[in-house]
Amino acid sequence: MEDQQLTLGRRRLLIGSAALAGLMAAPAAGEAAAAAPSSTDPVASGVVASRTGGARYEWSGAAFVDDYTTNTTANLTPETNAAVRILSGFQELWETGDAWNTGAPADTGALKSNLEYCAEVTGNRTEADAKQAFVFDRQHQSHSVIAGLGPLAALYKTGAKAVTAVTGAPDGVPAGTISDAVPPGAPDGAATGPGSTASDLGKVAELVNALRGPHASSNPSKLAFQYPRPWRMNEDSEVVPTGGIPVLGLPAYDTDVAVSPQLLRQRSASPADDGGFPSGHANAAYLAAIAYAYAVPERFQEMLVRASDVAQSRITAGMHSPVDVMGGRILATALAAAVLYDDAYAELRAAARDQARAYFTARTGADDLFAWAHREGADTDPYADRAAGKAAWTERLTYVLDRDDDADAEMTVPKGAEAILETRLPYLDADQRREVLRTTALPAGYALMEGPEQWGRLDLFAAADGYGRFDDDVTVTMDASEGGFSASDVWRGDIGGPGSLTKAGTGSLALAGDNGFEGGVVVQDGVLRVLSATGLGAGDVAAEGGVLELDPAAGRVKLERGLRLAGAALRITVGDSGSAVLKVAKTLDLEPGAALEIALDVQHPPVAGESLTVIEAKRIDGEFAAMTLDLDGFTAVPEYTSKKLKIRIEAA
């Protein structure tokens, strides 16, 4: 397809999958294509594959995080505006016209599904849904997402003096426009949004404001892409006298997109300046949520889901479509990373994290802030159901978009993206955090997600759960004295790959996924907890120091290969089922210094003289140098055979 260049008044936007002239260009004849950057080598150039896995295009120039200040309404082309550039994957779905209502779908099926989703959601909307959508629309987004802090939300609002005047919605259509403001009776110095920068949490508020700073607007991209809001594409749209959908070249469908009644008078009357893609509210909500997640990583994933809920409300309201809110998420991810990566904000982001940690620790008195922040159930914490939050988040990453199963473009993590995980995975270095992002990213094959730098493929929720693969050997060093996640963390993802894991340092790391990585595990120091039956993967396991702990949540753990214990402790909880808690497919090698620490399942009180099976192996070489039973009034007497270790419970 030839390059296409359309004029938008005084604006120009390049469209079409092969039309990224000046931004992406195929190598000239005789020239070799540049090698793809490695996932751990942040560079200012890179490659992107077409969704079909076909021709690869190259671009060179500044990476988004080095060029994000170009995101202004004075710059509306991919060459001049970094935001327009990274969103240019939208060109696989939409071809911009010379006016707001003369564009055409590049992928009719996808955009028809996009609008049908809107019609279905708004058609099934309840009155309560409509009112909530109004609150999210009119309330400052930096305030709306605070609820993601769960048990910490009220404390945050008090400490930050964060207030809002929009706490409910009218029953019908309001008389005029409504905006957020400081309500009467608010504390002195109170402020909307994230609160006052002069408050006890002023640095956190300042960080939120920085991420939502002068270069964080979605307006330049709206003006560049000129994709209408869904309600403007209704058959009977008053704004499009000839009928919205046919004008846009889409097949007509019977159900219209219904705007929430409370928002009918909140809409813009200037369609040329009020595009749908990307959603500004979604962009703002994600920016604020990522800022809070950075300062309060104890609620990292919950903040992401809260932003996702605010973004979903834009569809419920009839104000935006799925592709709009996906664009808002992609843009916000890149913009947040840019500020968190920018050295100009280094002092602020450190101060915000330190301030939040000190404030919440003092107010809660909690030694374990993460546990305190997750102490409430779903009746009071709307994000307590982690599985439900993950499911909603995952579905909304791609919404109605179909994946081309033949696409196989390698994921290259955008420069600076690792900064978002800096406080959530503080014990990993920058390269390791980039690898986490790479191995948890969406697969190739989704339109919109594979624009330049591939920001859309990042899955921040999954990344907060640790690696998705060990493609190389990984060493994790945790310092318990630093507290927080450096003292204790859980990786909940399912980890594959050929590499190994070495646990070093004094902290505690737990593996909770269905893991199949093949390189094995080495415990050098601290604690490695196993929370699932396959948590230790498919390789050999060696504990050379510290503690290897099989949590009762893991059930019966089966090792695919051997286990060697030398100068380390195996901590295990034993029940009365008669089956071994640990099954080793090959040899259990007990070298000098190996210790066994036993606890009994509280659901099964001990009986003197009872024998309990602890370990089964193909062969057991050696014996434990020490054995302790964590139960007053009883001792454990070991009983070894060549393939089993049992303990006999005796009264002390």
Structure characterization notes:
- The chain has 652 residues and is α/β, with parallel strands linked by helices.
- The chain has two domains: 119-218 and 278-461, no CATH class; 467-651, no CATH class.
- Helices cover 27% and strands 17% of the residues.
- The protein contains 17 helices and 23 strands.
- It has helices spanning 64-67, 82-86, 108-123, 127-138, 141-144, 153-160, 202-211, 219-225, 244-247, 280-295, 300-316, 322-341, 346-364, 369-373, 386-398, 430-439, 460-463; strands at residues 4-8, 11-15, 45-49, 56-60, 94-95, 104-105, 474-478, 488-491, 501-505, 508-511, 521-523, 527-530, 541-543, 547-550, 557-559, 563-565, 569-574, 582-590, 595-600, 611-621, 626-629, 634-640, 644-651.
- The strands form five sheets. Strands 7, 9, 11, 13, 15, 16, 18, 20, 22 and 23 form a ten-stranded mixed sheet that branches. It has a seven-stranded parallel sheet with strand order 8-10-12-14-17-19-21, with no helix packed on it.
- Helix 4 crosses helix 11.
- The longest helix has 20 residues, at 322-341.
- The protein is elongated, with a radius of gyration of 28 Å.
